[in-house]
From TrEMBL, chains A, B:
The keyword Membrane applies. It comes from the Bacteria. This is APC family permease. PANTHER family: POTASSIUM TRANSPORTER KIMA (PTHR47704:SF1). The chain crosses the membrane at residues 6-28, 49-66, 86-113, 134-160, 166-184, 196-216, 236-257, 278-298, 318-340, 371-391, 397-417, 429-452, 458-480. The keyword Transmembrane helix applies. It comes from Paenibacillus gyeongsangnamensis. Pfam families: AA_permease_2. It is a multi-pass membrane protein. InterPro entries: AA/rel_permease1 (IPR002293), APC_K+_Transporter (IPR053153). It is found in: Membrane. Its main location: membrane.
Length: 634, 634
């Protein structure tokens, strides 16, 4: 009962923190992240790719979801008993039709934005008000986080299916994967690295072999086998709602379609043609795989088992637990991890784009040592790790939150494209506008279906989070705009001016550090006051005598405080000075000494009062604070 | 399996952190801790107490341990089977004899130090080298922490025995108790509050009634009953080692004897007489209770049950689960909590004492708002909560770590007292010296027995921790001594001197904040340089042009950094200046601007680069850093 009183992840965090405390942070960072890179190395990184190579790289996100999409759909039907297993066929067919429509719509997007343009760019260019583009951005951001959480969880679930013994560590392993992907991305391994093409190819080939093996089996043993559930039985408790729920879960297989349209420029010339070829091939591959996979699942009557994925079960039926089963397992795992990995390029790029428009904190625009937007990556990793922890890495628990965001973003992008064709015209503009308008209507419908059918299961989280993010983004922009107004100065009329300053040196006795601080103050100011705050009369008297003995280098003011606090009397003193000077003086300059110990453990031996005082004054008063460091030699 | 993925304690911590983030910290603090108190209120707090009132207050720690001491002894014998249950009788007898000797020794301590003197004071006054007193101090500090952990765990175990349903939350409840006691103590409810006398009286009365009920039962049903185990059987696997182990566990009932000797001044005049009366009464009460309790346990053949304390089982036998059982349960709980609570006075007083001698961080000497040594209290609470977490609030797992420290401290104190009598002499000094010498020998023996028999079970932790603490204390003292030497100045010859200073203002553009900072710099210095670090040629050219447009208020230096870092070029620049000035100049003064947002969430929108730069320079360079705050209005 008490054996696992602290989550393993916490142990790892503790170890990391201890490492950071003891080891030079720069070295750890260099070891994990690599040497810093120059800004100009950025453009040297991208190589143009032949479309057949770009295809597997850009399709990881979409194609990998065949590993969990159909299963997510079937899971919704479990409660109706085995007799409705056949419904996987019409649902998968509907999913594939939707896939086809989306592919056509996205080809329109590629034609419109040959330099790459995600939902956010399209919306921003085609709507005057920022609301629509922010809805697209928030929806995409939510979905990127969910893609990482779902892909990693599904990847680990593939491993758990093959090795049930690691089932206990599902959550921890998933979080480790996220941390691992984060580190890899902080190092700057980009999405377009051709090295990722091969495992993706491998997975695609595995799936094709699986499907061929299935048909081979069916040619030998019949297309209706003893375990095949009856076709067409309609149980009384089968409602439209349940079918729609199953359909919307199955549509989680469609996430990731936008990847190619964001990455048009990486295709070898002519990029648009390459991208369209890739889109068509990817659509055909995914469609064939989905239908073949669903059909074999139906024929073999594979049940839902939370501890063994349907893909793993089907592979076992055809190939047993031999080498090929292992290849399928590991390539599933790898493609899902690569899908999560590709999100680590998309999310930070989008946040940087939105931050550049002033809707997100500017720190998301800073390129890290390895030229990636490190802050965005860290945010993505943290959020998805939290989701994994909260949902115990259960893919089926995460699916209801998924897809709604993608389809919301799809809808905004399609409406934007329609508006664009109506405005820009160009060849065949009526056809293009029609395609995108139909796309918009369908994705909007799907989105509404999702929101309604999945509301209770978790979609409400997204429906709350989405407007909150939009609202927060507007507030951020408003803040930045106001700050910009506040900070703007007229270069012609406003110039630096000298002020009269009063300098207050807070002292705790007479010693080398105080000598230092007063020397510093007197090097700068005419008016220097030393301030001593004592907790009893005795210490104050002693201080006064010592000060005289020291020839009183500057006026000394003593304050007695019976509450043993420095902050309160210091603050009152500054209030008094402000009044005594005849209203607020130009500048009050507080000078504090701070011990800088030689070794880290010595920090515990010196009160860091000056830090507290500094923080308090910054928050509450308009006082300039100078810290004079004193480096302890021992 | 995954249902409790995060420990409940973490939730509470999260809630507290969120509260602190959103609510004004001062208000929370005032609500939890109370208004600040003046230093002079300190002495008004202590009222002199009549010894009969002081007795229950000061005996909580010792007397409460009857609730777990005998059980801890018997637990060691469980593996030998039920036939050796009778050994509880000789072991308890030995414990009570040891108790008597310690009481007599401690009365000698009271006579020697009528102003109160714990093991540390006694050792410090009677040994020249600090080693012995530090051993006493470390041993006591370790034991204070263990007292809190054991008392709270035992208190919760009493509740769990009565209400098994809360058994799952044993650890969490124990940690909550520690936090609760901490808050109460931060408020400043002192150990000597007479309010604590009554629940302790109640527990003493409960125990006496329990013992009388036992004898009543035995008069009616015989002193040997059907369930009474046979007396004197010696199983072949009974070794001296096991008996010594049981004895040393049972001795955990003797912790807390030192409390009265530390608190002599709170007795009403004459204090020494009152303290001695209290010692004798407390010794008699504890001895009678231990023997009576052990005898009844033997007669009724009560077995060890980790989910039901022996006290709870015995009370059930006599009184069923009615009202009186409830009273026993809750008074046991309360006295154990009060025992833990009294430690919150002892530990911080001892750490303050040791810190005043320079062996512990000085922050332990600071009295908090409510006049208690808050930092010591927080350290005690944190350490004991960690112990409770690590040992899952299992009293029997904590016992092996216990008592060794107490007896080590006892030994040092007894040797110190012996030395004192030999030196000071006085009336009956030979007798007193003899008593303390015998006490020293016996406690030393007990200590060695503990260390050997309990080594494997956890005593090794203490045997490692104790010398480590002593070593750390010596290192702390050495550090403070060296610092004092380093800081000392000659008031006659060393006076503040004016230096030549170079002031560097780091700017990010031309706006109101920069105007502010340059105004400040020019108000103080003749030599001001503005430094701009750009990441590309374009921004640097733009900056130079704007600067000229602004009539160049001071020289501008621009640096291009392709690694998008401010720290590294800034640091190189300062290195260059240091060399260019012909060796190290007197002072380099770095001026940084810092945005102070209006609302807490706005901090996320502004890079806190100046904090990072400041921290880095303090650690690595001898540069004075001034932060010019800019309070954002929006």
């Amino acid at each position: 009962m008490h054996s696992s009183w602290i989550h393993p992840v916490l142990y790892v965090l503790a170890v990391i923190m201890i490492l950071f405390a003891f080891i030079n942070f720069e070295h750890v960072k260099k070891f994990l992240i690599g040497r810093p890179m120059r800004t100009k190395e950025l453009h040297a990184k991208h190589n143009k790719l032949f479309w057949l190579i770009a295809l597997p790289i850009l399709s990881a996100d979409l194609y990998s979801s065949v590993a969990y999409g159909p299963e997510a759909g079937v899971t919704e039907l479990v409660s109706l008993g085995p007799s409705v297993k056949w419904i996987i066929l019409p649902i998968t067919a509907a999913t594939v039709i939707l896939l086809g429509m989306l592919i056509v719509s996205y080809i329109m997007g590629v034609l419109a934005y040959p330099n790459g343009g995600g939902g956010y760019t399209i919306a921003r260019e085609n709507f005057k008000k920022p609301w629509m583009s922010l809805i697209a951005a928030s929806a995409l951001l939510i979905d990127y986080v969910l893609t990482v959480a779902v892909s990693v969880s599904a990847g680990i679930q593939a491993i758990v299916s093959a090795y049930p013994i690691v089932g206990h560590y599902q959550t921890s392993l998933s979080v480790f994967c996220v941390i691992f992907i984060l580190i890899v991305n902080l190092r700057g391994l980009s999405e377009s690295a051709t090295i990722f093409a091969w495992p993706n190819f491998l997975f695609i080939i595995c799936m094709i072999i699986l499907i061929i093996a299935g048909f081979n089996d069916e040619f030998q043993h019949g297309f209706i086998q003893s375990m095949t559930p009856p076709l067409g039985t309609v149980p009384t408790n089968l409602t439209i709602l349940i079918i729609l729920k199953a359909f919307s879960s199955a549509c989680s297989a469609l996430t990731g379609i936008e990847t190619i349209s964001n990455a048009v420029p990486i295709f070898r010339d002519p990029p648009v043609k390459g991208a369209i070829k890739a889109y068509i091939t990817m659509g055909l591959l995914t469609g064939v795989t989905l239908i073949g996979f669903a059909y074999h699942l139906y024929v073999k009557g594979i049940p839902v088992d939370p501890n063994n994925t349907m893909l793993s079960q089907l592979a076992t039926v055809y190939f047993g637990h031999g080498l090929f089963y292992q290849i399928i397992t590991w390539s599933t795992f790898i493609i899902l991890i690569i899908a999560a990995n590709s999100t680590f390029t998309g999310f930070p790029q989008l946040t940087a784009l939105v931050a550049a428009d002033g809707f997100l904190p500017r720190s998301l625009m800073i390129r890290g040592d390895r030229l990636g937007y490190s802050n965005g990556m860290i945010v993505l990793a943290a959020l998805s790790a939290l989701l994994i922890l909260a949902f115990h890495a259960q893919t089926n628990a995460l699916i209801p939150l998924f897809a709604i965001g993608v389809f919301a973003a799809f809808t905004v992008a399609q409406i934007g494209l329609t508006r664009r064709w109506l405005k820009v015209k160009g060849s065949l503009w009526q056809l293009k506008a029609l395609i995108n308008a139909i796309g918009a209507v369908i994705t909007a419908l799907v989105c509404v279906v999702f929101a309604i059918t999945k509301f209770k299961d978790g979609a409400w989280v997204v429906l709350i989070a989405l407007p909150l993010i939009v609202f927060a983004a507007m507030a951020v922009r408003k803040h930045y705009d106001r700050i910009a107004d506040e900070l703007r100065i007229d270069l012609k009329t406003m110039h630096p001016q000298k002020h009269r300053m009063l300098s207050v040196v807070l002292i705790s006795g007479i010693h080398r550090v105080v000598l230092n601080s007063i020397s510093f103050a007197q090097s700068m100011h005419e008016e220097v006051i030393a301030l001593y705050i004592g907790f009893d009369d005795e210490s104050i008297e002693k201080m006064k005598m010592k000060w005289e003995e020291w020839d009183s280098p500057c006026p000394l003011i003593t304050i007695k405080n019976e509450y043993r606090s420095l902050l309160q009397p210091l603050s009152s003193f500054i209030n008094i000075v402000e009044v005594a000077e005849g209203g607020k003086p130009d500048h009050i300059h507080l000078i504090l000494a701070q011990f800088i110990p030689n070794k880290w453990w010595q920090y515990a031996l010196h009160n860091q009062t000056s830090l507290l005082i500094r923080a308090w004054f910054f928050k509450n008063k308009d006082v300039i604070v100078t810290t004079v460091p004193y480096h302890l030699h021992n």
